[in-house]
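Form 7-S
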Amino acid sequence: MGKTVTTYLIDGDPKGTQYAFISNKICQMFVVPRSNLAYLNTQEKLQKPAFYILLGEDEATKPQAYIGETENFRERVKDHDSKKSFWQKALIFVSKDADMTKADVQYLEHKAVAEAKKANAFVLSDNKQTPKAPNLPEYQQDSMDEFFEDVKFLASFIGCNILEVSQPKVEHIFYAKGRGCDAKGFYSSNGFTVLKGSVIAKTTVPSLKWNDKRNSIASEYTALESDKLVMTSDKTFASPSTAASFCLGRPSNGWADWKDQEGNTLDSVYRTQLE
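Output:
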């Protein structure tokens, strides 16, 4: 089923201050760069209960983020501005038709921290514990569950994958083997996801030009088990070839090296659909 998303670029800059919402939904997302916090003074909605995510844009293997809730984001962000140096922009989620309660945004924070830790795409060093869910009436919990799905959609809409936990289809699992590698994963609109439990090559060949970055990613996503490097969580790469090169420790054409149980290459499954 299709969706219509309305986006308004407040200062005309696609990377600047903006807000977005899904038609016929109450969830509204504001994207506010740290350089334009003065905008918060102009929006009454941002001075009420809100759920928010602070995002960093560094060059680390995993960028850093902080997930929180507040009764007044404009006032709360003053503390974050003085004490947290990593973040570059804030995603603030509010109800565009009715105010949310403190318990509502606490519930959203609870769900988001748990989901973000499962996705493992961002460093959440300031969210050490998953907050407990507040007691909400069943009808309100259902309403906030629906709101949270819209939060995930809008975050993904602007390219933020902090809450995306990819779910593979069993029939679309592909495998890569060689050089001690025994990896599996799946292809989707997000890229190619190497699954938890995959074994990757311990060494690399000299012709692999991004060895240092590979080692950095491996340090974040693998552990040594019985003298094998094993993925401790899923990791999505931008392309099948990058994913295969990471797993095999050598340059790779992922479209040819990833094969399903029947031996069909990723290329033959996905690139021949228009023939």
